[in-house]
Each structure stands twice: as structure tokens, then as C-alpha cells.
Amino acid sequence: MQESNSTNSFTWKDLLYDCLAHWRWFVISVVICLSVAAYRIASSNEVYESTASLLIKTEDRTNSLRQAREAFNMMGFGSMGSNVHNEMLTLSSPTLMAEVIEKMRLNEIFRSKDGLKNKDLYKQEPVLVMFENPNKLPKMVKMDITIISNSEYELDNFKSGSKEVSEKISAKTGNYTSTPVGRIILSPSTHFSQEMIGKTIHYTRVDPMLIADSYVASLGVELPDREASVINLSFKDNSPAKATDLIKTLIDVYNENWVASQNAKIKSITEMVNERINVTLKELNEAETNISSYMSKNLVADFDQASSAYFRENMELSKQIMEYRTQVNIAKSMLASLNGSEYLTLPANTLSDGAIIAQIHEYNQLVLERNKLLDNSTPNNAVVSNMTKSLQVIREGIAKSLKGLISNTNMTVNSLEQQMSSSQQHLAQTPIEARSLANVKREQKIKEELYLFLLEKREENDMSLSFASDNSQIIVKPHSTMLPIAPNKRLIVIASLIVGFALPIAILLLLVLFDTTVHTKKDLESLTASFLGEVPLAQGKKQWKYMPAWMQKMMQKKEKENFCVMVQKNNRNIINEAFRILRTNLDFMNKGSDNKVFVVTSLLPGSGKSFVSMNLATSYALKGSKVLVIDMDLRRATASKYVTSIANKPKGVADYLGGFCSNYHDIIINNAIVEGFDVIPVGTMPPNPAELILSEKLSALITELRQQYDYIFLDCPPIDIVAESGEIARYADLAIFVVRAGMFEKALLPEIDELYNKKVFKNMVVMLNAVTTSGHYGYGKYGYGKYGYGKYGYYTNA
Length: 798
Fold this sequence. Notes:
By secondary structure, this protein is an alpha/beta fold.
């Protein structure tokens, strides 16, 4: 295509001609494609889409819920909220879908033949199937049920797992029937009608997990706005009612699992708190019993007023020491938990260090999210694995912080013990009984405060159970489209028409692969001769490669030849630039030599020798050189047609060599194309061109002309057609061998090498003509020009 890049080797017009020539292909292809489209439309079930919008509750809005959340977070067990992206993964998980399938009994599939379609009888099944031991069935069971009457059935085509059995079995309503898939009871459903008698129902029962993936593939879970927490759900199915019911059930099962998951986690925390309360209550009872026993035994009622101040100080110091030691014990307990292999939540509110509490809050939150994902996944899941790595990093940070807390707290305890020792010196005078009683009461006070604290937290935890409600709210109720979304009949028909037209075109294009002609410079790299350059196909010329041979010849005969020099002054188009580059390359090859006479020849006719001769000579004349072109093709005189007409033929080289003109100046057409560009035409067509070429007058003529012109171009006939080219080559200093792109067979390249190696021509160089360009000549991106062969004498002159 001329509009495309150089990798293409044809034009739209070529393709159009070829398509017209093979119009029957297109008719047959379109008819076949439309037939296939009609069959697909007739055999495909309509697909409907049901949609809904679901709001995920990421934060609580009421005061009571907010207070419960805050109380729950104070215990260090993370937030009760949810991550929208995690909920999207949960909604689209096969495990959740399997629960929905089982709840809706979608794993029992009833289908019947309706024309070319297999119709899904969702909520329209005429018969019910009950197995005696459904839990012992294989993962897939199939059979055909033919309805004889409302009480009689015929069963056939059984399949249990991978085992298939073709055996017709009669069954009656209400009785167990032994079949290859197990004992079953058949009974008519509420959807049974007389129209179903005689029809065959294809029954399939599969494990829900086997078809969960296919249902998930039809489920769409999208987040329309990253900043929002609304999820759009959609499901596509042959039954609009089934699609709508599935989305409803999916939402219900999702909410049920969410509530159950949250309650299970809260109950786990409650059990841990209750266990700690029981231990603390036991210790408190022991402390109170010790106080009663001590007071009864020692009859201690009051202390001396003088020691009251020291006692209170001692009590306060003892309390602080106990609190710090409690912090150390709790920290050590947490360190021991962190060293375990399981990821359990930690009670962070029992510590006083805010930074550690924040770390534990973050750790607990991630533990809850990980455990939630594990409900529907495995530890090898990429998301769970990433969370596990994050938990390990947080664990290490918490452990490091706890060790620092223990170290600092122990230092504080040592300081307080020193202060307490000083205070106890002031109480040296206090009776031993009073000090012992104070120690017992202090322990009882600490246990009492810890017990009340744990009771408060258990109450808050119990309150949070009542707030573990549904995690979502339906914004748009599930509803189905009234019209099916598939199959798109118009699209199928249009696509079939496109394929019907594209298929023959593709076949025609594949024929290009069988092309064996030269197209680009790369195809000539194997030649020994030097490569002079390449010239693109002249605008307006036609290529006939893709048309049949008889049509190519017919079109070539009808085409009017246009003998016009393309190289012009101040013209920078592709053709002009190509010949300027050709001229530069030729000058480079002639640098340091006195080569003046160039012979232009080819192996095949129609290669464009005359076109190259005239345009290359014009480019030299525009440069200021004095140039002469001699048309030595005495049989066809193609180059002469650039400056003469059939009606007006001046005398030429044939007349001079034949003795009909004595002065060679009379046969020269001065300034034929541009100033400084002279042409010697053929003149009168001779009957004996070979004898004229052998005339000594030709040698004398060229010797004389060498003195008058800077460059002389000898336009010769093809070397493979006549013998004159070899004789003319004796007078030339350099031979330009023209190869036409799209016409010259690659199999003929060795013949060029043979001419070069045998030195038939002096200083032979090769150039490529009529390369199809892509419009980017300056980059050398030529496409593939392609002409037919034609008979000798037909020149496209491109």
C-alpha cells in the first residue's frame, strides 16, 4: 500500500483489482460466514445480567457503635471495621461461591433441548431427584430422564465420576430405583405440566467446588471509586431470575459469614478475659482470707499516729513497685507469646507505654485481617503471605520495645526499693504485726483493683457482641436487565460479514509469500558487483503483480506510455533526490578516473534503462555538466521517444551509421531536455541493427564525442534479448546494470555475477529501479514495487 510502510508490497488499487477478479471467493465466503453466524445465534442461549450495589461498612456512625468500637480498640484487639479490597476478594472467592451454590442447590442442573439450544430449567424443573445417600455420591453424576407420564420415567446415559453406562431403566414416582449412580426417588415437581411428557431432561449433580470457579468467572466485583466503599456486583447467566437470586444469596451468605467470624473472634477474646478474671478472683480471695486470719490472730486494730505518715509513704512506694513489677510480668508474658509460632492477638491496654500500645494495636489489627482471609484462603495465598511477613516485622519491633520496657522498669523498681528501704527504717519502731498487716492489705488492694478492671473490660467486650451486625448495606437492590446482553445478533452478523470479506483478502495476501522477485537492496547483497543505488517507482505507474497473468497483459496493452523526464531543476521530490544520490555515488566511483562513457543495460526488457539514462543524464546537466545520451536500442528506440514523436522522427545514429547522414552534428538534438543536455535519437529504424553496431563509424563517433562532452550515456537493449549490448560495451568506461524491483527473479542473480566475473562489461555496477517507496525516501525506506514481465519492447520507463 502506498500509504503504508515499506514492508508492504501492494497498493489498495492492486488489491481491489485482485478482489474483483476473485469475486466468487467473496460470495462463497460471506455465505458460509453468515450461515455459521445464523447457527451460532440459533444455538446460543440468551445471556442476562443482574446487578446490585453494596456499601461496605468501614466505620460506625452512631454514638453507641462508636463507643463500642473505642472500648474494643482499648483492649488492643484492633478495629471492627473492614478493608474494602479484602471484602472484594472475599465476595469473589470460590469458597463463598460454593456456599451460595449449595444453598441455592445450583449444583443440581436440569436442562432440556429447545430447538438448537440447551435450556436451563432453573425453578422450572418438572421432576425432583432425591438420592438415598447423597453424601456418598462422586463429585459428578449425570443421567437423562425421559418423562413418560407424571408417575413414570425412563432413565438412560448414566455417568458416575468418569464411568459411563448406557442402560435404560424404568422408574416410578415414590419408589426407590436402583441405578448405576445410586438409589434414587423421582417425583413430579410443582412445575410439572402435560407439555413436558415425552421430553428428555438432562440431569447433572456436581460438587459445588467443581463449578464454583465457572460461577466466579461470570461474577463481576468492581470498585467504581477508589475513595468510596461501594462495590458493584454483577452476574451473567442464561436465566435472569437465577442471576438475581444468586446476587441476593451471595450478599446474604457474605453477611452471615461476616457476623459469624466477628462473633467467633470476640468470643475468643471473652474466654481469655474470663480466664484471667478467675485467676485474679482466686488471688483476691486468698488475700482477703489472709487479712482476716492475721487480724484475728494478732488482734491488730489501729496504728500509732506517729507512724501513719511513714506508713502511707511505704504503701505508696509498695504500690508503685507492684505496678512496675506487674508491667514487667505482663511484658515478659507478651514476649513469651511473641516467641510462639502462632499469630494471636495481645492485650495491649495492660501496659502503660503508649508507643508499645500503638504497636500492639497495629499488630492485633493485622492478625484479625489475616485470620479473616484465612477463613476463605490458605497460608500460601499471596495476600496472606505478605501479611505474615508484615506481622513478623511488627513482632520483632514489639519484642525489641518490650525488652527495653523491661530493662527500664527494672531500673525504676530498683530505685523505688531504695526509697522504700529508707522509709522502712522510719518504721523500725512500728510493731512487726502492723507492718505484716499492711503488706497483706496492700496486696489485697492491688488484687481488688485488677479484678474490677477486668470485670469492666469483660462488660465492654460483651457489649461489642451485640454490635457485630452485617458488614454491608444494599444500596441498589439486585435487578436483572429486561433484554439479553448476549448474543449480540447485530455484532455477530457484522463480524461474520467482516470475516467473510477478510478471509479471501487474507488468502490473497498469503500469495505474496510465494513471491520470488527482487524488491530491495538487501536482495542484491549476494552480488559481487558494486551497488550503485536505488530509484523509487515513478508516481502514476501501476503494478500488476497480484492480478492474473492474462489480465496483466491486457492492462499493459491498454496503458498509455508516458515518456517524461522526472528530474527537474529545484525539485526535491523522491525521484529527484534518488537520482541526485545516484549521481553522487557514480561520481564517487569515478573519482580519480577519466570515465566518461557509461553504458546502461539490463538482463530483461522493461527494466527502465531508458528512464534511468534520461533522468541520470538530466541530473548531470542540471549540475552544469555537458551531457549526451545516445539511443543505441536500434530496435525499439525507447530513449528517442523522450525527445521525438512518431510523426516527427529526425535523423539519428542509425542514419549516421548507415551512411545516410555524413555529419554527426546533424543528428544531435541540442538542449533536448535542459540546457547542456543533448540527445542522439535512433532516427530511422534499420533492418540490420547488429551490422550497424559493428561499424567502425560508431567507434570513431564515440571517440569524437568524448572530446566534446563531459559524460556520454549509451542506452542499450537488454543483454539477454539481443547481442548488441556486448558490442556497444566495448566503447564504454563503466556499465550500469539496471535491475527492476518486483520484476527481476532472484534465481537470475547468478547470471549477473557471471557477467561481472567474465568482465563482459567494464567496471560494472548494479542499481535497483522502480522500488516502491513509503514516502520517506530520505530514510531509504522503500517498499516493494511489482511489475509484470510483458514482452520485449514494452517499457513502463519507471
